[in-house]
Design a protein that fits this description.
Helix 1 (about 25-35) packs across helix 2 (about 50-65) and helix 6 packs antiparallel against helix 7. The strands form three sheets. A seven-stranded mixed beta sheet has the order 1-2-9-6-5-3-4, with helices on both faces. A two-stranded antiparallel ribbon has the order 7-8. Strand 1 and strand 2 form a beta hairpin. The protein folds into two domains: about 5-175, Rossmann fold, CATH 3.40.50; about 180-385, Dehydroquinate synthase-like - alpha domain (Dehydroquinate synthase-like, alpha domain), CATH 1.20.1090.10. It is α/β, with parallel strands linked by helices and about 400 residues long. Helices cover about 45% and strands about 15% of the residues. It binds nicotinamide-adenine-dinucleotide and glycine.
Length: about 400
């Protein structure tokens, strides 16, 4: 079973991420091993949909390890990732009398993980956090690297902390029940990591999608391995993604704003400048975050090619890989100008200047100051990407 270690500046906070089918059965034992010997109480934060599917196994494992478990439910969806929800969870955690030596365990996708991690970082100035991510996006991206947070009126994830988990257990068996759209959204984030992480990671992801997917339902089919061998291949792919992100985090844990080299944490924002604007102009209701990233990557790659940075062949390869992930919901009716006018709210701006994460080639990102990207190229890139959902899935 692959395990990836995440090394951070304070080595006492280093942690392991275990990946494989059935890891949830070991959560109790794993927590016993990784956390304080004084740990007695656990608040298990989840939503009702995920808990109904996977809560019993996790609860059993925790109680078998002699932890006293209080379950705390939050609403399902991005709109519940708020201060108000965090405050309610803090209240329930306090009512359950968790002490500094106790722990919060998150069971769910990125929304549950980000919010539960946020609460864990605040309660008694920070207690142990364990993450059990259950979506593809959360398994390869949001559960790695310690970013926690909530959305506010000022923007998505605009309030948050860095608080690393003590342990992350990725149970690949949970991916079988993901909806097709959540699977596609996760694959888009995987393609993003390949596009900036290196051609090997990109090819590994593309080959997996090509072999395991099918033309009608690529995202979902690829997450239901039919043999031990297929299951091991999926675990190894996820481990490669987690290792990529762990490496970026080890190198630039707090996303140093002075850095704009091709290994800075900021490169993870590839596709996100347009994605966040697209999500905002559609009131966060129309696109899954990963779907918006699909469009955002297309826009950033198109801009890269129009600036003569990225070869046209690489742009085509990226397009066909996104098509392999599954269909994105249509976006052709979204007003390009409206998306353009939201770009200025990008929270990755530094000194009032937006930084584009573009591509020099597949696997090699380049951070470019907005002053070096003419407006007409940005507009053409966004327009072209929003009209690209009809790109046919390639099977070879
Ligand atoms: P999500 O948490 O809303 O989950 C998507 C849907 O899938 C939800 O309805 C959820 O209940 C359901 N679900 C979860 N696991 C399931 C399973 N195994 N089977 C069936 N249904 C399941 O969304 P997400 O895509 O996981 O995460 C998006 C969030 O992650 C955003 O808030 C984003 O800001 C955040 N994020 C954080 C980081 C970070 O570094 N912290 C990185 C990327 C994204
Ligand atoms: N998902 C962006 C980051 O972790 O930095």
């Amino acid at each position: 079973m692959p395990t990836v270690s995440v090394n951070v500046a304070r080595s006492s906070e280093n942690y392991d991420i275990e990946i494989g089918g059935g890891t949830h059965e070991r959560v109790g034992a794993s927590l016993r091993q990784a956390a304080s010997a004084h740990l007695r109480r656990v608040a298990l934060v989840s939503n009702k949909r995920v808990f109904k599917l996977y809560g019993a196994a996790v609860e059993t494992s925790l109680t078998q390890a002699r932890f006293s478990v209080t379950t705390v439910f939050i609403g399902d969806g991005e709109r519940f990732k708020t201060w108000r929800t965090a405050e309610k969870v803090l209240t329930q955690v306090a009512q359950a009398k968790l002490e500094r030596s106790d722990a919060i365990v998150a069971l769910g996708g990125g929304v549950v993980g980000d919010l539960a991690g946020f609460v864990a970082s605040l309660y008694l100035r920070g207690i142990t956090f364990v993450n059990l991510p259950t979506t593809l996006l959360a398994q390869i991206d949001s559960s790695v690297g310690g970013k926690t947070g909530v959305n506010t009126a000022h923007g998505k994830n605009s309030t948050g902390t860095f608080h690393h988990p003590r342990r992350v257990l990725i149970d690949t068996a949970t991916l079988r029940t993901l909806s097709r759209r959540d699977a596609v959204a996760g694959w888009c984030e995987a393609i993003k990591q390949g596009a900036i992480g290196g051609i090997e990671l990109f090819e590994m992801t593309r080959n997996y999608l090509r072999d395991a997917g099918d033309a009608d339902n690529a995202g979902g089919a690829a997450l239901s391995p039919k043999s031990e061998q297929e299951s091991a291949r999926l675990s190894n792919l996820l481990a490669a993604h987690v290792a990529f992100k762990a490496d970026i985090v080890a190198n630039d844990e707090r996303e140093n704003i002075e850095r704009d080299d091709h290994r800075s944490r900021r490169i993870l924002n590839f596709g996100h400048t347009v994605a966040h604007a697209l999500e905002a102009v559609t009131a966060y209701r129309r696109f899954r975050h990963g779907e918006a990233v699909g469009y955002g990557m297309l826009a950033a790659a198109e801009i890269s090619t129009r600036l003569n940075l990225l070869p046209e062949t690489d742009l085509q390869t990226l397009r066909s890989c996104i098509a392999l992930a599954g269909n994105l919901p249509p976006a052709a009716d979204v007003d390009t100008e409206a998306v353009m006018s939201r770009l200025k709210f990008d929270k990755k701006s530094v000194g009032g200047t937006l930084k584009w994460v573009l591509l020099k080639q597949l696997g090699v990102p380049q951070i470019v100051d907005e002053t070096d990207v003419p407006r007409h190229i940005i507009k053409a890139g966004i327009h072209s990407s929003l009209n690209a959902s009809a790109v046919p899935a390639l099977t070879s």
